[in-house]
Amino acid sequence: MANSEKVPIPEEPSKNNEALLRRIVRKIDYRLNPLMLACYTLQFVDKVLLNYANIMGLSKDVGMNGSQFSWLATAFFIVFSVAQLPGGYFLARYPVNVYLGCNMVLCGISLACTSACTNYASLVACRVFLAIGESSIAPSLSLVTMKWYTREESSKRYGFWYTGLGWGQIIGGLLSFGFQHVPHGAFGSWRGMFLTLGLVNLLVAAWSFVIPDNPASATFLDAEEREWCTRRLLLANKTAPNARRFNWRQAFRSLQDVAVWLIFLISALCSLLSGAITTFSSTLITGFGYSPEHAALLNIPSGAVTIISTLLATYFDRQVPRSLAILILVAPSITGGALMSFAHGKAASLVGIWLINTVTPILIIAMSWAQANCAGHTKRVVYNAMVMIAFGVGNICGPQTFRAKQAPTYRSATITILVATALAGVVTVILLFIYIFRNRRMSRRDTLEDVDAEVHTIANQTDLDMPTFTYVY
């Protein structure tokens, strides 16, 4: 879309079209949500398998020693973070379904090749390519959600596919438990686990290629439904759903927004927690005296906590402001960090590990909050990239808080988890006040009285440029 092109804002659809709306949204849900859940579940299983593989003999088989395991996780997220920048650009330029499918293919090949690794260098190489592939999964799913749903509808869909984190923990634990009972032949132990998951990723990649890029190209909708869907999304989201041009002005304007950086900080702090627990929870549990088989099973409740907290986050989004939802989820995570740091007895520490997982859906709330409070296709892409870079930064720092000499308690790591959780709550309150201030400032502007809908250049504007934009809390 050229910079000079003006996009007319359509009139709001009549309430008489509510039946049509329900029919369209139901069709979209059936086509997209199962795929998005499958993609996000698989990308998280990819991550937790390294956690389980470490207690299944991975370190011994590839000759890892000392802190190499921590650096293996860190290297993954360094590449993951760096890949967000070119990934965001490509995502803005190419059809999201094709880009998602290509990255799922790369993930599948990388995982399958991991099963053949015999030394540390080959394992690092596979993790690097896996990081490149996974770096664009969540941004792609976020963009799919915002291309197909209004701001009011999107939170429920974000919550649905984000439960994949919990399902990933559960599936990963069951896979680990199952493969620990397979005879250690060519497909035994952790090698068979990685090969199996790689093949499943390739199947889901093929599925990704067949979904449409946007409502205007959806063959499962008729002509009337496609036009109506496109018009209502343009009205509700202030962004054309079929936009694909990367606007450098919007990109630089986005980076000048303090709200972008506060969302970045919230996401990084929460990701530090989840990254530490994702990589080291099995190691912590075996340090309590449990066997590797029991450690795999005792990690399953973490997945259940993630699913429940994600569903609660989705419910909260319809009932309470997103900022309050974040603060509600931070509270049990602080309790979990305190139990891990100061409680005596393995039962209390185990409960602490489970409670930490209530922080997991905060990342998707932050992403949903960011998307709801921005306008412009490029700014949405930049927001996605910033949240995912923050995710990578947090996961880079998280594993590095664990020092081998502090085993099995890892006291400095557990205290860091506690402090990071509390800071995430503080930053959330600061961001809330910024949005409140902006809305009050906007309400006093004379320009709010009239905006010419026919010449409103939606494609080229961010929320900071729109006097009628209202921020949600």
From TrEMBL:
Entries under SUPFAM superfamilies matching the protein: MFS general substrate transporter
Annotated transmembrane regions: 32-50, 70-91, 98-122, 128-146, 158-180, 192-211, 258-277, 297-316, 323-343, 349-369, 381-402, 414-437
Keywords of this entry: Membrane, Transmembrane, Transmembrane helix, Transport
Membrane-topology annotation of the record: Multi-pass membrane protein
Major facilitator superfamily (MFS) profile domain sequence ranges: 32-440
Signal peptide: none
Protein name: MFS general substrate transporter
